[in-house]
User: Fold this.
Amino acid sequence: MTITQDLIDDSLTKLLTDPLIVFGIYIIQVLFIIFCLWIIWGFLLNRVKSNISPELYNALRTLGRATLLLLGLFWIAGEELFIGAAALLGTAIGFASSTTIGNFISGLYLLVTNPFNVGDYIMLPDLKVEGIVEEISINYTKIITPQGVQVSINNQKMLGTTIHNTSIMVPVEAVNKGKITWRDKEGDKFDNIGDVVDILRGIRAKYADKEQEYYLYPLIYNVNPDKYKHSLTKGVLNEAAQKFSGRTVEQITWFLNDRSYNQSSYQINLIVINPYSIFDLTSDILGFLEEKIEEVHKGQ
Assistant:
């Protein structure tokens, strides 16, 4: 019995002192610690999730997980191997223009620079996509289009395209009973929305903590100038502005944006609080314009 016990003890001693076994046990210990920290970090983020923006939540979650993974790599590999792995990772990032790593870096950049938020109505003219941002993740930005289709665009492509964000911040002092009063100090209305935006930019810093968010959507309407004269289109646009201004926070305005030999382009400015209302409002206005112009044209 003593000989058997000695053999067992001897075997266990050799087993537990084997470098490979020792390293394996060390890895399990490190992974357990990282797992516990991972769970704790997720728990803390969920506690404050309702008090922070979705973008900040995604950024903190991703940065926390990346930090824990790097920490685990440092513990397991040691300083020298960690430096080598970091150098290799840096090289990989340099050549990752069309890989998941490239999307990851682009996603972090979007979250930090914050060119748009979840819920904003954005327009991507280069990609011929527009709609409301539903989610900003590390790899993709998800947009719901006016057709009700969810489009996922990789963040690397988002970073390299033109982004028009329709969101505007208006000082509370410029809001009167839910109606934006676009007036200058003499009480005269501004001629176009560009003047308004310039004024708002100038006083934005003064009322940085007292702002209301609105969405200014530039609805484009094109007509054939040979078939529909400007005077005819002007009357129909004014009628549409009167009809649909009850669904916006301010009287709808429009102006002739561009004109060529075969097309006149009009921009109709719609200012709303809820970006989802843009979907139905633009469809209704365009339908009304088509019906009225055809009606007037037939009566000539």
Observations:
- The radius of gyration is 30 Å.
